[in-house]
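Appendix C. Worked example: DUF4864 domain-containing protein
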Amino acid sequence: MQFTESDFIAIRSVIERQLEAFQKDDAESAFAFASPGIQNQFGTPENFIQMVRKHYPAVYRPRSVFFENITIIQNNITQQVLLLSPHGVPLRALYLMEKQPDDTWRINGCFLISVEAKIT
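Step 2, the predicted output written as structure tokens:
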């Protein structure tokens, strides 16, 4: 799977913009950065942001954000991001990215793991 420097920049921008939308409680903007599959799963921006608020506080309100490398995990282009949760717990977010037919990138899932976890 090939990706370019412009893909790296676009992927980072999508994640940064979604994180900014969460900070502002802008459900519609945050939802717009999700892939069509994620949008179908949650149905509305309100359902989506409620799920993130409840189950992903480190994504919803991170104290700090540090972008790591992009890797491929099970054929998914994955951006690794170090987050500091609202409670001061460091976590690694694995953002699964999906390229759309119009060549834009959307977030197709996010998994939080401990920073000690080995990624293979």
